[in-house]
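From the shared-data thread, chain only:
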Amino acid sequence: MSEKLRILYVLNCHYPTINGVVVSAKTCADALLQRGHEVRLLVPSGKGRADDPRVICSPSFLRTEKGDFPILAWLTPTVYKKIKAFNPDLIHVHHAFGVGLVGLILAQLLRKPIVYTNHTMIGEYARARAPFARGFACWLFDRWNVSFANRCNWIVAPGSSMRDLLKSLGVRRPIEVIPTGIDPDAFEGADHPGEVRVRYGIAPGKHILFCVARMTAEKNIDFLLEAIAHLALVRDDFHLLLVGDGKIDHYRHMAEALGVSQLVTFTGSLPHTEIERILGTGRAFTLPSVTDSQGLVFLEAMAAGVPVVASNKMGAADFVRDRIDGFLVDVEQQPRVQAIHKYASRVETLIVNQGLRNTMGLDGRRRTREYTVGRCVDRLEGQYYDIIHRSHNSRRDP
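Structure, as tokens:
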């Protein structure tokens, strides 16, 4: 179809905040704009956001500790008038609460079809962030998420693991697996070891390892540091670069307590273009998160020719093929020391075995061609047309 669409994206965070949801939404929105569609973003009010003509800011409160993620938001007459004037053909929400709930209300008021991308299982996220929030609280989060999904026309799951989990929890709406997609060409030649060594003071004989993630509990950074400490018992010819913001001081103190502060560097957040330039320097990409549904960082590492060591749960398991593109480990295995030992041994294998490393790197690179932005947005765009067509037909039916 050549008809151009008007699409409203609704999400609880936006630049300058950078996380998987923001990157996913921006990637898809930019690709749709390039195809001639009109896209507006309904996001919480924040510094600099009102200056973007594509952004509509919604009042919100009860924000998280960083102040960039609202728990509650509301629909004002001004916001409603702006969105009504835009007259979206479809509303695509990326969160089930906060501004996402405003998106659901808008869809009902304007009688527009609504799509929901379930990026995160809120209950699992809460368990990782706050171990005390078990039982009823996490069950309530999950039930809310399922209830929200069942009020939408169609659900996008970033991977098959998320799709299967949503179905098992009771989501009855159609679910399509559509990853965000990446630009593999952006990571070609992403190997600048001299530059990286000089910038971060890494000796020439050290093998560089990468982790790109928020430094927070749900990314399982504590497990990663324990695995690094375990590996350090047998060798010290490596250096781990942890790229991302978050609770850096907390994990820096943990590294010191584990005796590995000389083997790790916390770089803080880096521009994505910088990550594209240097990621190929790594001998391995390592992130043991069990809550990531997207798998974007794993695909990016693979595009850079870097084999992955990750958890065998959710996003990593959807995209990384065990013993082909990297290694998948059950990081929740008990006793914990066995999981740590196995994870550390997989990292060591990639440090010492250059032949395996090169083979996995090439296999991973080839695999990422299946997940280009163009291919993924082709599928998303096709589903948009189908949903809008069905919505129009249902309104015409007596």
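The chain is about 45% helix and 15% strand.
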